Hints:
The protein has 155 residues and is of the alpha+beta class. Helix content is 21%, strand content 50%. It has helices spanning 2-21, 102-114, and strands at residues 27-38, 42-52, 59-61, 63-70, 73-80, 84-86, 91-101, 119-129, 135-145. The longest helix has 20 residues, at 2-21. The model has no long low-confidence stretch (mean pLDDT 83).
Amino acid sequence: MKKALLMLLCVISLEACAAFSMQEPLSVTIADLKPIEVGILEQRYALKVRLLNPNDAEIIFDGVVFDLEVNDVAFAKGVSNQSSVIPRFGEAVIDVHAVSGLQNILMQINELLKGERTTLTYRIKGRLHTGGFGYTRFDSSGEIAIPAGLRQSGS
């Protein structure tokens, strides 16, 4: 009887592991980014981040940690203790804050002044804390078009 019970527990555990390992990664995009405090050494931003869940199970989380790269260069870091639920096959938009330093912003301004780019590429990577010791990692990239008025002309 004990062997049968042990075998049943092993099978259930393996099925649970298989179900979790087959999860597709979250798609994370920046829906909005606004400067909220611009200082000489540090800049703070308010971001709206869209989280898309392509899986058949909701994701309940109570915090997020992330790094933001712009044009393949570290730009800002952020955290939030916001709690939310991303529905199965659904999405959620969360508000987070990020901080960047003077060097990061100067590098991006220099790139813009060259006038060669029509888009900025970004990469946002981090993790959603799902309570206890659990978390869900994400790593997504995207592009933002630079308005023509902000681009330098080559002449």
